[in-house]
Every structure is written in C-alpha cells, then in structure tokens.
Amino acid sequence: MILAVASCLSLAISASAANPVNRKATDFRDYDRTAWYAEAVSAAVDNGLLYGKSSTTLDPNGDMTRAEMAAIINRSFGCYKTADISQYKDVAKSKWYYKDVALAVQMGTYNGRSASAMAPDAPISRQEAMTVVARALELDYNAYAKTDLSKFADEKNISSWALPYVRAMVGTDYIHGRTKGLEPLDNITRAEFAQIFYNISRQSGKETFRQLDTPYSKRCAIISLKTSLFHLVFAAKTVVYE
C-alpha cells in the first residue's frame, strides 16, 4: 500500500552514548573545527544524528560498529516491525542492540555475515555501510549499473556482492572516496558516516528509486526522501508494511 505522506523524522542514535539534549559539536574536546569533517559532524551532532561516546568525547575518527549503524538507520526511517533473529547466535537478547538488529533484518538493510553470525559489535566496513544506506533508500541499482568506478584505483577491491550498491552510492554522489580511493574493505568512521548523510541532504532530489512490489511482511518501511539537513521530509512515497 503506497501512501502519499509528508512527515518529519529526526535522525537520532543512542548507541553506547548518553547525550544531553542540545549538545553542540564544539562541546566535545576531540572535535576539530578545522578538520575535513567539521561541517558534516557539526550538523550531525546539532541535529541529533550523532551522539558523543561520553560527555566530553565524540570520537569522530573512531570506527562505527554494525549495531550502531543499524540503530541509526532504523530510527531514521521509523522502523517498527522486528524479524526473528534467533539464528544469529552472537546477538544476545540482553544486549542494547538486540531489537535494532531485529528491526534491521526485517527492513532488509542487514544480513548476517554468515547463517549464524551477525557480528554486531564488529566495525562496519565502508562497502557494508554503502550497502546498508543504498538498501534503506531503495536506490535503483539498475539505473546506476553503468556508474564508472575506474577513477578509484582500488575498484578491484570492491566485493562483487557490494558492486551494485557502491555504484549507486557513487552515482548519486553520496560518497566520494578517500585520498587513496574508495577503500571499500576499510572500516567506516563516525565522521565519514556523518559525511554520507550530509551529502545526502545536499544531493536529495537527484536520485532514482526503485519501484517495489515487495510483500508486506518483508519490510517495515521503504521511503523515498526529500531532505532538509538531517531532518527527513518524506514527501514522495512511503510504503508501510503492516
């Protein structure tokens, strides 16, 4: 059922952090206002996307874990329906991220690293992060199938399963690569993740989305977005699965 809606969702994450309301990036001692990430991270903190690791540290250069990213994506897209994840033996019900992993699996943004392991505490690689975001946005992978990745010297390092998602993320200009290339197998940092969403906010409206006929039981929400910096206004279409 496709519903035309206009609603705003604030992007937020509480993963492993206790963040007071209305914090600024400059409140954290390890935030560098001269760094390449300064604008994106400042926007992410100001708008509730990125929380500090403590009251004084933001850890912008630290790795983001798979569970932390799942939490951001779920809350950003209003996911509410969980999947049975009992097959993943490394996701304990006592962990803060148990529900977030179940939500991410239901939404279709996350798969396990094997049939029985999710590796929620492991850092998420750059190609995995691109895959999760591309799936969440439901980008049209066929539309970006001819995206030229030859400008990246490490193009050959991209895993075959990740290629459609990486092409889509590069094709939409959501990700620009590092100095040495895309570095798809390296871990994504918290600052880099903030930069991706900053890029999304600036590029929104130029994307090509897939037309979906996914069964209602498959996902909790599939959203085409129009954004205003880190506050998503869903005006195009929202597919809600009961």
What does this structure look like?
This protein has 242 residues and is α+β, with helices and mostly antiparallel strands. Helix content is 27%, strand content 10%. It contains six helices and four strands. Strands 1, 2, 3 and 4 form a four-stranded antiparallel sheet that branches. β3 and β4 (231-240) form a beta hairpin. α1 (38-46) crosses α6 (190-203) and α2 packs parallel to α4. The longest helix is centred in the C-terminal third of the chain and has 14 residues, at 190-203. The relative contact order is 0.18. Residues 1-20, 209-219 and 221-242 have low confidence and may be disordered.
Descriptive labels:
single chain, 242 residues, alpha+beta, 4-stranded antiparallel beta sheet, 6 helices, 4 strands, 10% strand, globular, disordered N terminus
What is the strand and helix layout of this fold?
Layout: E1 2-3, E2 8-10, H1 38-46, H2 66-76, H3 98-107, H4 126-137, H5 163-171, H6 190-203, E3 221-228, E4 231-240
Antiparallel strand pairs: 1-4, 2-4, 3-4
Helix content: 25-40%
Count of beta strands: 4
Structural class: alpha+beta
Major sheet attributes: 4 strands, antiparallel
The fraction of residues assigned to DSSP E strands is 5-15%
List unreliable stretches of 5+ residues.
1-20, 209-219, 221-242
The radius of gyration over CA amounts to: 17 Å
Helix/strand order, N-terminal first: EEHHHHHHEE
Q: How far apart, in Å, are the first and last alpha carbons? A: 10 Å
Average pLDDT metric: 79
Counting DSSP H or I runs of 4 or more residues, the number of helices is 6
Shape: globular
